[in-house]
Design goal:
The chain is mainly α. It has 4 helices and 2 strands. It has a two-stranded antiparallel sheet. The N and C termini lie far apart (32 Å).
């Protein structure tokens, strides 16, 4: 018998490693590299406040692990490029699940 996973809330799916793959690969130029990295799955303090420090630290550590160390607080996301940013976004849930 197959046991199907039926998430009741989006967070249930995210916690199981399911994520949306955006069709748009252009980064948001007004956001930092870390903000683009976590776009749509921001780390928060409580319900409403972004935990910018945690997002910066985790994004920096992940990029360093992947051999792409950079200042994630820069707003110059063109230094990554849209395709590489999408590649990183796809791998983010898996990298976060390992920690």
């Amino acid at each position: 018998m197959i046991n199907l996973f039926k998430p009741g809330r989006p967070i249930d799916a995210i916690r199981r490693g399911l994520t949306m793959v955006p069709q748009e690969i252009s980064p948001a130029a007004n956001l930092t590299i870390a903000d683009n990295f976590y776009l749509g799955r921001e780390i928060t303090k409580g319900k409403f406040f972004l935990n910018q420090k945690a997002m910066n630290e985790q994004a920096s550590a992940i990029l360093k692990e992947l051999g792409v160390p950079m200042d994630v607080t820069e707003k110059n996301v063109r230094c990554i490029g849209g395709k590489k940013l999408s590649w990183l976004r796809l791998r983010l849930p898996f990298l976060m699940m390992r920690k």
